[in-house]
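This week, study the protein below.
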Amino acid sequence: MQFRTGTMADVATLWALRTRCVRETCSSHYPPEVIALWSASPPPVQYARLLGQGGCVVAEDTQGDLLDFGVFDLEANEVDALFVDPDQGGRGIGQALMQRLLAMADQEREVVLSPSLNAVPFYQRQGFVSVREEAYPHPSGVSLASVSMRRPW
């Protein structure tokens, strides 16, 4: 496995993995009508800014195939996204990626995120604590149940 900084040239490939993850992994916690709207949405406009500031980490295998990716918002000190290929789960890839995202964080502030319900146990294992349940207003127009979390240093 090798890590590199993601660029705007990667967006289509990253978004395809994200869409697959929403359909295959998130469907255990959300109804089909939510998954349909969520998975059909385009990449968010803020990705240009986030990737432009170097906030994207991509993990690939030795053949260059995408294993996972994460996006960190430096300004908000927030994990914006972390998606692992559903066929690669349980191998420690997500944890290795999380360590790289946390290395970008301002250690003077808490790291925050609002993960999907299925991802909460993963983030708890990474030292994040739940603050409250919330409804995340997704750009697709759907309101996603999520959990506001933080990670103190």
Observations:
- The mean pLDDT is 92.
- The two ends are 28 Å apart (CA to CA).
- The helical segments are 11-24, 32-40, 47-52, 93-102, 120-125.
- Strands lie at 2-5, 56-60, 66-73, 78-84, 111-113, 129-137, 143-151.
